[in-house]
């Protein structure tokens, strides 16, 4: 079976003078449609991901991933464990500082290794050549856990939260739906929302940048509305909770540990810009600057929102409220109480959009390394997006949405993420030895990655020690499945015959081709 396939894309989507390449299924190069023989005339663009993220967009990407729906829904766990307003606010600020230190370590790594993929690439660079079998295994497991399980499941949970808050304003005015119809409505809205964000990430990075910037600004406006409401309450004398200070603090190691644990998770996402390094304009400058802007902004926003909550609500109300932000607005905004549910919905949608954007890039990079199916390393020839990787994330997230309650899966698998953060910090130390002669535009002090290694161990061990649930067996199963895939398909490089046809039809259906070598 022979087909005439366009081998490369020109810079102008309307041009038709593609050089074609006829490839027969089952012949050389495993039946893939090739682009290597195509002429690159002077007016043509290379087939590669384009640098579309400036400083503003890179900063918004970090903020967009970090601030989801959690700070609006359940920030009270840290207050419950810390026991006092003063200690709780101190821990929120400390966690912001810890997140900044971790992000600065990733900035050093991102400038040293200017490739997309974040911790996956850093772990692969540090350990990949140390041993034929064990060297690439940690980075493969990183891509396996992130791409196949944790991130699509996380997007599913966030998009379900988006649907919940889309429904809330209608239920306020038209009454509560029956549980059966409500569950159906939430899943339908979730699937529509997922389809929309997948389309945005598929169609254009420029479209993504515009939408992401809009939603990040919107979520910050929602945060500022809550903060202003809190400032108003302080101005009229509602200071009883704040003036309690450290009264009632729980200073036992268990309570302090859990308070830090619950505060650090809402900051997750500080490494996002290094996942998309190859799409950042002037990465040698903008990666570090975006981190230095975004993480402190999020820290201040989180700190001020918690002050607003503690000013508007009593401590018991804040701990018991199922959705703290909505409870606050019901008390302060009157007939405009629909604003925050819509703001939370937009915040959740923007976060899901940005997470899918970044994890599709990790999938794309892992595929280029041979750790995922080759077809997912291909780029759309006109849109310059990793289209197959985006569609894969949409499909996996759909599965998790339809699967029902996956909160347990996330709770007992997400702590694996901090294992890979810790490995990235170890990679930084290793690369200082193995790449000691390479010029580094930015370097953190030695104590910072060492400290972050202990933070990673802390976040991995605290949930197991404080709640030694058999459900953590889920994480072991995920790792075991990853190893079972790694041995035949990565280590021994077994390529099932059907994968040739799969790659071929992916190219045919999605109009994608292998990336041309990036010029540095």
From TrEMBL:
Family classification: Belongs to the amino acid-polyamine-organocation (APC) superfamily.
The record ties this protein, via InterPro entries, to: AA/rel_permease1 (IPR002293), AminoAcid_Transporter (IPR050598)
Return the PANTHER family for the record: AMINO ACID TRANSPORTER, B(0,+)-TYPE AMINO ACID TRANSPORTER 1-LIKE PROTEIN
Q: What is its main location?
A: membrane
Membrane topology qualifier: Multi-pass membrane protein
**Chemical reaction(s) catalysed:** L-leucine(out) + L-arginine(in) = L-leucine(in) + L-arginine(out); L-cystine(out) + L-arginine(in) = L-cystine(in) + L-arginine(out); L-phenylalanine(out) + L-arginine(in) = L-phenylalanine(in) + L-arginine(out); L-histidine(out) + L-arginine(in) = L-histidine(in) + L-arginine(out)
Name-wise, this protein is b(0,+)-type amino acid transporter 1
Q: Where is this region: Disordered?
A: 24-43
Q: Which GO terms describe its cellular component?
A: apical plasma membrane
Which organism's genome codes for this protein?
Diploptera punctata
Spans through the membrane? 53-73, 85-113, 184-202, 214-234, 291-315, 335-364, 384-406, 412-431, 443-466, 472-494
Q: What compartments host this protein?
A: Apical cell membrane
Q: Where is the composition biased (Polar residues)?
A: 24-42
Keywords associated with the record = Cell membrane, Disulfide bond, Membrane, Phosphoprotein, Transmembrane, Transmembrane helix, Transport
GO molecular function term, any single one: L-amino acid transmembrane transporter activity
